[in-house]
Amino acid sequence: MADAPWAEIREKFQTALALSRVELHKNPEKEPYKSKYSARALLEEVKALLGPAPEDEDERPQADDSLGAGEHALGLPAELVEAEGPVAQGAVRRAVIEFHLGELSAGEEHLVKCLRLLRKYRLSHDCVSLYIQAQNNLGILWSEREEIETAQAYLESSEALYNQYMKEIGSPPLDPTEHFLPEEEKLPEQERSKRFEKVYTHNLYYLAQVYQHMEMFEKAAHYCHSTLKRQLEHNAYHPMEWAINAATLSQFYINKQCFMEARHCLSAANVIFGQIGKIRTTEDTTEAEGDVPELYHQRKGEIARCWIKYCLTLMQNAQLSMQDNIGELDLDKQSELRALRKKELDEEESVRKKAVQFGTGELCDAISAVEEKVSYLRPLDFEEARELFLTGQHYVFEAKEFFQIDGYVTDHIEVVQDHSALFKVLAFFETDMERRCKMHKRRIAMLEPLIVDLNPQYYLLVNRQIQFEIAHAYYDMMDLKVAIADKLRDPDSHIVKKINNLNKSALKYYQLFLDSLRDPNKVFPEHIGEDVLRPAMLAKFRVARLYGKIITADPKKELENLATSLEHYKFIVDYCEKHPEAAQEIEVELELSKEMVSLLPTKMERFRTKMALT
User: Fold this and answer.
1) Distance between CA atoms of 587 and 594, rounded to whole angstroms?
2) What topology is assigned to 525-613 in CATH?
3) What is the DSSP string of 255-305?
4) Picking from 6-15, 59-68, 307-316, 549-558, which range would have the lowest pLDDT averaged per residue?
5) Alpha helices in 488-554 (DSSP H)
6) Mean pLDDT on 364-386
7) 121, 163, 242, 592: which has the fewest C-beta neighbours closer than 10 Å?
8) Of 14-18, 416-420, 570-574, which gets the smallest average pLDDT?
9) What radius of gyration do the chain's Cα atoms show?
10) CB-count burial class (<10 Å; 0-12, 13-18, 19+) for 252
């Protein structure tokens, strides 16, 4: 090829590359894609100047072109064939043009042609990076079309090719842009390595998304973790995006009860989020990241919510491990867990911690400093639970700064519900009954104002949740006040009045919840929906129990209360006979209801006899 045309080709290519990278907002308002169209036109000119490729003369597709990745997509290793000689170099340069045309138009045809031109050279130093990038782009394209298995094939092929190249060759390969650069402008080894590693990091990121879509959650988490780790190692990340991804990953570990790993992800998220506005702008840091106050505060609030879930789930997990069959603290179980504590502490120094570690040096120290302030071990007593509670409550206040009721109704309510749940689980660890009562009172104080402003028509499900939760809080308070009164030799009228008022409030909210299940004609459903079956049955059971707990000196009123109580117990028994599947949802309550249906009529008859005699 003559020198003059080659210089012209190089210049056109570099101009096209520069135009393709122009941000849309820098184009004229009425022509936002002007630079992209210009870039595409120049690339087509370069393609014409390069002349036809051997495949252009015979366009018959090969049998394996449907996947584009060829036999390598089936997991077979590539053979090393160097791209030497004018024919090979011409094919590679045409492949570069096809790749960029494919990038500009999300064009499958261009990207598949790129792979076809490079197939035999794909393991070579000159072509491996370009081949992997083309496969990555096809993976993204098929993923957007929701052809997930095809996307998976391309991306796994890229991963296998990267691993084979690093194992067999290892030297930093040529970057695709270098095929149109003079020798003196070629990139140094360090820059090539940086770019190639970034390509592989993108490959892992896309694989994580594909595995998530395929509900292969273990694999998705592994690839997400690897991506985050590599982004830090190569200093190629957006602090805000990285922090959110790390915080999101923590939720996977929380669900798996891997609290050490979850804490590490959240601590790293805090440290990296703190870099926003403090680190110099790189090619991977968008200027807008720190310049949008609303987005900054939203992301900060989202990370705070992940911390709340961490504290709450860890406390709830401890409660489940230590409670007896009536939900109270089992001292034997508590002792057993204390004995296991040493084993849990030993694990911290094991391979498990090293496997999840983000960053090195100062970054690692900064993450460890955040970790040290929060335990990953299940709390075994009130003091340990209180430490987690206070951390969770700190993040509740942080989340509420952004997720306010005006504009973020659902989010705000969920944060308040989590705050209430933190108080509820803390009360489990508290041994002082009066202090437990105060914790439930705090829950009611934060939940009751929510339903005043909520339109029950638009927020029916949320309304039901809050009504049920408030009812349960009043129910727990009443039980505690009864237990306190039982310890007194002669409870005064003030305590009796307090118990009855709590009873009345619990009844009110359980009834509001049950009424919300009625149809527009106020008729209670004959068949209760699966999503509300258990809460509806629990509400009926607790209403029955509450009527039986009302303290009154009026025998006639007491008889009425017992009759109402029996009516609700009978409803549960009758409903479960008609709908046997419901019995599985409330096995304990059903047995107690059957017992009460058997005992209450006798008790009521004795009561009537006593009334007649007096």
Assistant:
1) 11
2) Methane Monooxygenase Hydroxylase; Chain G, domain 1 (1.20.58)
3) HTT-HHHHHHHHHHHHHHHTTTTTSPP-TTS-GGGGG-HHHHHHHHHHHHH
4) 59-68
5) 493-515, 530-549
6) 93
7) 163
8) 14-18
9) 33
10) buried
SS3 372: coil
- The whole-number pLDDT of residue 469 equals 96
Distance CA 227, CA 493 (A): 66
Domain layout of the chain by residue ranges: 80-179+188-237, 245-280+292-431, 449-520, 525-613
User: What is the pLDDT at residue 1?
Assistant: 45
Strand-pair partners of 329: 323
d(CA 25, CA 28): 8
Cα-based angle 461, 569, 593 (whole degrees, multiple of 5): 105
Greatest mean pLDDT range, 29-38, 61-70, 455-464? 455-464
State how far the Cα of 207 lies from the Cα of 230, in Å rounded to an integer.
Answer: 14
Do 330 and 322 contact (CB within 8 A), yes or no? yes
Asked if 127 and 109 touch (Cβ cutoff 8 Å), the reply is no
**Percentage of residues in the chain having pLDDT higher than 70:** 89
Residue 106 DSSP symbol: T
Count of residues in the chain: 614
CATH of 80-179+188-237, one of 1.10.3720.10, 3.50.50.60, 1.10.357.10, 1.25.40.10: 1.25.40.10
- Number of other residues whose CB lies within 10 A of the CB of residue 11: 13
Listed as own residue / partner, the contacts of 275-281 with beta carbons closer than 8 Å and 24 or more positions apart are 275/239, 276/239, 276/240, 279/239
Question: What would the two tokens of residue 73 be?
Answer: 């997509």
DSSP state of 602: H
Query: 205 pLDDT exceeds 90?
Result: yes
